[in-house]
Amino acid sequence: MTNTTADARAAPLPPGTKAPEFRLPSTPDQTVSLAEFRGQPVILAFYPEDWSPVCSDQMALYQELLPEFRKFNAELLGISVDGIWSHLAFARDRNLHFPLLADFEPKGEVARSYQAYRSAEGTTERALFVIDADGIVRWSYISPVGVNPGADGILRALENLEEEGGS
Amino acid sequence: MSTTQWDAALAIPVDEDRDHIQGRADAPVTLVEYGDYECPYCGAAYPIVKEVQARLGDTLRFVFRNFPITTSHPHAEQAAEAAEAAAAQRKFWEMHDLLYENQRRLGDQDLRGYADQLGLDVELFDKELVEHVHAPRVREDFMSGVRSGVNGTPSFYINGTRHDDSYDLETLLAALEQAASAPQ
């Protein structure tokens, strides 16, 4: 019901859309592709930058919630335009134990395909996507960039998936 | 339609039997804090909450729930469990205050020292911490916060609605006073 229109947030790729495939580095010698997770839900958390205070709280919260996400057999992937060495240092410093993917080259290409790129800043939006086992976007949300969106929306989306897709 | 928006509201109502509460059950304003004992922002909010409590007196009921973010704060979980262990011996608020007044000293020895200082049964306190007797309660608080839209600490709720504005003294006080004068 509540609509926020005051700021210029992009509209993310809507529910019902096929989630664009991607393959991105998660370490200097490993890549992760969306297709690997077919058969289970995936949470894509785009965040603007490693090290900025809001992101860190958000990622720390998600780390804390990994056991809850696992209850839904869901995989969490963080994505930003930072390079892989920044991601590694960030993950180590903040004790993050889920993949942080580098949408680094071509810069922001994956974010663009999810309609979650901020051209003016050269970073991704603070955008969340829940993708179902068949690779379809089932929930998407873009938060004001300075606001940590929390995790309630993700959990609601995962619960809805479970209710609807009981087969 | 596709991008859900929702109001951040307290998912689990305040329960006089379950929650840690200061103030009267019939107070017109209830302030709920989700906090982490090792979080410096919560430490900064601690004296502010004390001040609004002093100023508003019986108008305000204050509730504290645990939201330890252990990824960032390695001592936060044990400190939260220590406060719950103190609660089991009816000294929750005394321990709560000691923890916030000594945020940089939250090691196991420190916690034991605070238990001793408060005259708790230290042996029982230790045992409960080692066995993580109160971990489920802390997690329950944490998840109730997640479901209420807590996205960092401290998060405040005034009469059940998340306070998204600053929690500096003037702003928080004004928001509480407004809630107090709003028709129920």
Note down, in words, how this protein is organized.
The complex is a heterodimer of chains A (167) and B (184). By secondary structure, chain A is of the alpha/beta class. Chain A has a single domain, classed as Glutaredoxin (3-Layer(aba) Sandwich), CATH 3.40.30.10. Helix content of chain A is 28%, strand content 24%. Chain A has a 5-stranded mixed sheet. The longest helix of chain A is centred in the C-terminal third of the chain and has 13 residues. Chain A is globular. The termini of chain A are far apart. Chain B has 184 residues and is α+β, with helices and mostly antiparallel strands. Chain B has a single domain, classed as Glutaredoxin (3-Layer(aba) Sandwich), CATH 3.40.30. Chain B has a 5-stranded mixed sheet with strand order 1-3-2-4-5. In chain B, helix 1 packs across helix 7 and helix 2 runs antiparallel to helix 3. The longest helix of chain B is centred in the first third of the chain and has 17 residues. Chain B is globular. The N terminus of chain B is likely disordered. Classes of the chains: A alpha/beta (167), B alpha+beta (184). Chains A and B meet through helix 1, strand 9 and helix 5 of A and helix 6 of B.
Name its key features.
heterodimer, A: 167 residues, alpha/beta, Glutaredoxin, five-stranded mixed β-sheet, 5 helices, 9 strands, disordered N terminus, B: 184 residues, alpha+beta, 7 helices, 5 strands
Average pLDDT of chain B works out at 94
Total helical elements of chain A:
5
Compute the number of structural domains of chain A: 1
Q: What oligomeric state best describes the polypeptide chains here? A: heterodimer
Side by side, the strands of the main sheet of chain B go 1-3-2-4-5
Strand order, sheet with most strands of chain A: 5-4-3-8-9
Low-confidence stretches of chain A: 1-6
Structural class of chain A: alpha/beta
Task: List the chains of the largest interface with their residue counts.
Answer: A-B, 33 and 20 residues
Number of DSSP helical runs of chain B: 7
Here the CATH topology of chain B equals: Glutaredoxin
Global outline of chain A:
globular
- Give the distance, in angstroms, between the N- and C-terminal Cα atoms of chain B: 31 Å
- Report the β-strand fraction of chain B as a percent range: 5-15%
| Strand segment count of chain A | 9
Helicity level of chain B, as a percent range?
Answer: 40-55%
Find the CATH superfamily of chain B: Glutaredoxin
